[in-house]
């Protein structure tokens, strides 16, 4: 495959995302004011409670079976490795840049959580459809791509809402308390936090963890999708042209189709406000970019190559491509969802996402 053709094949899906992002930024302009802050928050809530769970459940149900789960067992482990290594690198970044206390959880979340849902669902199937794709027949490639992307999205959502959500929530609460205190007391608290040990912070996270967040709507949607896909009796009722309850799956597909464009429009509006914002250390932004786009991809190559060498994964080029891609994604767009739902650090979050996506 020629280099030019390969470049075009990889570029088209990215251009699709950038086009919708630009539209979201335009709609968020003050003179247009269609996608203002209140509108974005309301649309974000609809995505969180309706579109997102429908997208996860419908894709997982259609593409995940017991046989495919056995074949793809290493993918959840690979995603967990990305979160663990990202968290470690995030802790090192915090120690080097010394950000304010109310931003530390957000920085850790941006380093740990990659965009395992939307980006994979857009990029991987789109690459399969492009002429000259290196992954074989387009139809077969697209079927497997949806399965890989769906499992990645489901597992990523579970890790995001069980781990990253609690990190950001605890940090936001502590940050708001610090802002309500005097400057002198805030400085003292910041110094005390800086001198604390990493083990103490981890213990604090587990003590204050909100277990309800593990069962976020997207996680529930993933569990429903797994049940439909794995249990043959339920699968026959809901999936297929002759299924008696196929209208339920069709409805979920229609709702899920709105999740991806809505999320991209929201992030486009957030990026516009974030690029206009201020107050974020340049070293902090550069550090997140280095973690997500340099350090993690290099480590990912070693992890995937090692797994292939020891026979932990099969040598399917598309499967290996997805595993490598999981180490090379920008921060999860649901980090923006977290900030909006927690209603704190919105400007800081928009700034971090804007710089790391641009």
TrEMBL record:
The keyword Metal-binding does not apply. Pfam families: Mem_trans. GO terms for cellular component: endoplasmic reticulum membrane. The chain crosses the membrane at residues 6-29, 73-94, 106-127, 147-168, 214-234, 254-272, 284-306, 318-343. The keyword Ion transport does not apply. Keywords: Auxin signaling pathway, Endoplasmic reticulum, Membrane, Transmembrane, Transmembrane helix, Transport. One of its GO terms (biological process) is endoplasmic reticulum to cytosol auxin transport. InterPro entries: Mem_transp_PIN-like, PILS1/3/4/5/7. It comes from the Eukaryota. It is found in: Endoplasmic reticulum membrane. It is a multi-pass membrane protein. Belongs to the auxin efflux carrier (TC 2.A.69.2) family. Involved in cellular auxin homeostasis by regulating auxin metabolism. Regulates intracellular auxin accumulation at the endoplasmic reticulum and thus auxin availability for nuclear auxin signaling. This is Uncharacterized protein. The lineage of its organism: Eukaryota, Viridiplantae, Streptophyta, Embryophyta, Tracheophyta.
């Amino acid at each position: 495959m020629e280099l030019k053709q390969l470049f075009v094949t990889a570029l088209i899906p990215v251009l699709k995302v950038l086009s919708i992002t630009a539209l979201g930024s335009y709609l968020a302009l003050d003179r247009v004011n269609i996608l203002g802050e209140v509108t974005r928050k309301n649309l974000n809530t609809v995505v969180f409670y309706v579109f997102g769970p429908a997208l996860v459940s419908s894709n997982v149900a259609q593409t995940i079976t017991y046989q495919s789960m056995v074949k793809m067992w290493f993918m959840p482990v690979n995603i967990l490795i990305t979160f663990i290594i990202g968290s470690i690198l995030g802790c090192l970044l915090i120690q080097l840049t010394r950000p304010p206390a109310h931003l530390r959880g957000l920085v850790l979340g941006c380093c740990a959580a990659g965009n395992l849902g939307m980006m994979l669902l857009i990029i991987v199937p789109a690459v399969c459809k492009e002429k000259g794709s290196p992954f074989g027949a387009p139809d077969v490639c697209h079927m497997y791509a949806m399965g890989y992307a769906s499992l990645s999205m489901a597992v990523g959502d579970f890790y995001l809402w069980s781990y990253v959500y609690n990190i950001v929530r605890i940090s936001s609460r502590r940050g708001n308390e610090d802002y309500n205190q005097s400057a002198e007391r805030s400085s003292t608290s910041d110094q005390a936090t800086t001198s604390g040990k990493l083990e103490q912070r981890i213990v604090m996270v587990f003590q204050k963890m909100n277990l309800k967040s593990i069962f976020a709507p997207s996680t529930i949607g993933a569990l429903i999708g797994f049940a439909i896909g794995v249990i043959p009796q339920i699968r026959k009722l809901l999936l297929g042209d002759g299924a008696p309850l196929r209208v339920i799956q069709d409805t979920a597909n229609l709702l899920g189709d709105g999740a991806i464009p809505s999320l991209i429009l929201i992030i486009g509006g957030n990026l516009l406000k974030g690029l206009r914002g201020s107050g974020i250390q340049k070293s902090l932004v550069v550090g997140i970019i280095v973690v997500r786009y340099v350090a993690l991809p290099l480590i990912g190559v070693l992890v995937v190559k090692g797994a292939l060498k020891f026979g932990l994964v099969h040598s399917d080029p598309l499967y290996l491509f997805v595993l490598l891609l999981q180490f090379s994604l920008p921060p999860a767009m649901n980090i923006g969802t977290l900030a909006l739902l927690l209603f704190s650090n919105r400007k800081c979050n928009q700034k971090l996402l804007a710089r790391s996506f641009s």
